Amino acid sequence: MSVTGLCQICTNAEAEDSCRRCGKLVCDRHYERSVEQCVECTVEGGTDPTRGGEDLPDGVDTYRF
Ligand SMILES: [Zn+2]
Ligand SMILES: [Zn+2]
Fold this sequence. Notes:
It comes from Halovenus carboxidivorans. This protein is mainly beta.
């Protein structure tokens, strides 16, 4: 897929993909290729939409990179 524009997360690098969840254009560093989503959607818990993990605890506000 070819996308023209800057990454909407870091606005610093050229976007190479778009998140299939929120549609953001993101660079390679901010794109999680295995789930075809941007890193923002990935940390929100959209890692695997096919599993429907609605029963996961939602109070996790500390994550580390
Ligand atoms: Zn980026
Ligand atoms: Zn996204």
